[in-house]
Amino acid sequence: MRYYGMAFVLLYLVVEIVALIALWSVIGLGWTLLVLVVGSILGLWLARREGLRAAQAIGDAMANRKVPTAEVTDGMLIAAGGVLLFVPGLVTDVAGLLLLLPPTRSLVRRRLVKAAERRSPGLKTARIRSQGTVVDGDVVEEPRPSDGPLVIEGGTVPSPGEPRS
């Protein structure tokens, strides 16, 4: 187990060094340093903005009695992007910035959800059920006449924000 951890760190260092040297050889040292600084500043600004949006989306979903699965997943991906920005290096900065941008984060979220649902099919059922309308009610046991059809009586419930009649 220790060997894989050390191999991962070594691979990370090699990839970051190769990326920095490649960028340096193309645009020069000064511009490379500028790219790193501007990327970090832009990333921190994006992380703050998108983090606040995700927190607000979670609050809105909860207020509307919706299960905030996509919102929580977005929040976790934004947090991961923020962590990647704090790890020094060009490749991690680019990966962090990509996770902070809504279009790429949406792609990653869909892939993560599909992978999780493949591993645990119950998650797909829960996601589908969470997107439906929630109906509050009570179960009343009444004897059913054996000679006739089952009759279910009920009424409609207005959506949130819709006036009751």
Task: Give me the secondary-structure topology.
Layout: H1 2-27, H2 29-63, H3 69-86, H4 90-100, H5 102-119, H6 121-130
Helix pairs in contact: 1-2, 2-3, 2-4, 3-4, 3-5, 5-6
The level of helicity is over 70%
SS strand fraction:
under 5%
Helix count, DSSP H or I runs of 4 or more residues:
6
Q: What kind of sheet is the major sheet? A: none
- End-to-end Cα distance: 65 Å
Sketch the topology as an H/E string, one letter per element. HHHHHH
Shape: elongated
- Number of strand elements: 0
Low-confidence stretches: none
Please tell me the overall pLDDT. 85
Indicate the radius of gyration in whole angstroms.
Answer: 25 Å
Instruction: Classify the secondary structure makeup into a structural class.
Output: mainly alpha
